[in-house]
Amino acid sequence: MKYVVGSLQAFLAREAQIVLVEVAETRGSTPRETGAFMLVSPTDAHGTIGGGQMEHMAIDHARAMLAGIAADTRLDIPLGPEIGQCCGGRVALSFRRLDAPARDDLDAMLNARINGFPEVWLFGGGHVGRALADALVLLPVRTFAVETRRNELDLMSSGTSPRLTAMPEALVKDIAPGSAVIIVTHDHALDFLIAREALARTDLAYTGMIGSKTKRATFASWARDEGLEDAALSRLVLPIGGKTVSDKRPAVIAAMTAAEVLVALDAYRRSAAS
Fold first, then answer.
1. Beta strands of the chain (E only): which ranges?
2. Whether the Cβ atoms of residue 2 and residue 10 lie closer than 8 Å to each other
């Protein structure tokens, strides 16, 4: 998510006149949720509130505000045949010119949202670890990369927060509840140590390890000898990425695993909220 924030900050620094367009209210089926926003300048835009004719209308209205020919700070748009969209719902959009106080408010809102994102901890910075970091950089998560090797850590996406340590497994106890742990190190023994610590916790949204059926069987035997119960072992996703796509290229594994993680994080959030 650091990449997205950096891109937005660059837009703010580049554009002197900006209108913040935010989804203030939704009813029925809509392309984006309440709180989604975009920034509009006289010649450019950043982000999306759902695309289609609704977004074009919003951009036109924001630019009319910047030109001084529109004053309404709210539009109520039905998403039906009259605008060429068939969602069927209704969206209320708010418009605010970004003067200095409004920019401060936007910074505060972004920081609050980012701090509320779930954490994903990547243990391992090899080919799959780097592909995972690249896959996660655009998603609403905070990604941490853990490695014992400085040279591998230096190759990770700048969107991750690096952690260099000789004992990665020791970090697991301090990971925030509701986080995801993905284990893709270069050492099976280290994988097992990290997984043991993660599975000893019951408050993580996802624990996954790269591997095969044989690796899972080997880990299960070792873990039982270490005192882990079957209930804990059942929480381990191994291999990560599922079986739907058989392609084992790092980027493909990363894409499939990122989808798994998002599903698990959402399920955890819903469960915690209920």
1. 19-27, 37-40, 45-47, 74-78, 90-97, 119-123, 142-147, 161-164, 180-183, 206-209, 236-237
2. no
Positive or negative torsion for Cα 240, 245, 249, 253: negative
Burial tier of 68 (Cβ tally within 10 Å: 0-12, 13-18, 19+): exposed
Tell if the pTM clears 0.85, that is, is over it: no
Q: Kind of pairing, strands 90-97 and 74-78?
A: antiparallel
Strands 45-47 and 37-40: antiparallel
Q: Return the H-helix or E-strand segment holding 59.
A: helix 52-66
Report DSSP state, residue 248. Answer: -
> How does pLDDT run across 141-193, given as a tens digit for each residue?
999 999 999 999 989 877 889 999 999 999 999 999 999 999 999 999 999 99
Residue 38: its H or E element: strand 37-40
